[in-house]
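Write out this protein's structure.
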Amino acid sequence: MNRPKSIFRRAAEGGVTLGALFVCIFLLETVPGSITGLMALGLMVYVPVVVYRRLKSTYFATNGLMTLSGLWLEGILHFVCGSIIFALGTLIFMKWIVPGYLPAVAAQLSTLIENNPGVIAGSDVTPQQISSYFSSIRPIDISMTLLWAASFTGSIASLVIAAIVKSKRIPPSSSPNQ
């Protein structure tokens, strides 16, 4: 007998795809250039499409019996699994592949603030304090922030996507038993 996949297995499988998309978006954003920026933007727009297709296939596979909360949970799990892969990918990139990436970004931000003193005008913070703060950020800090941010925004997006999927009509079954 062919048992249907559990919601957790479907979400984990979809999370692998989402994680790969997130890592590709991150890598494209680290490369300067307008073409890579446009490619990253295109992948960002594609993320909800991937989740929509996964949730729609689940909804149709259950003949419309999946509840909104069930679809929402599956979407959240997609994003959580994808976010874990995303966090690991960014950590590996910043810690071992290009270890000079974060210091270079911190130096660029410090230079930007020093060249534009109006950015911190009226503040008690000095450019040296800001530079010191940016220099203290570690790759794990960035990775964990991305994990939580992607999971949280994904949970909100999943609710909207699940509601859209739930509003779809189920096509009539073509099985001869009905």
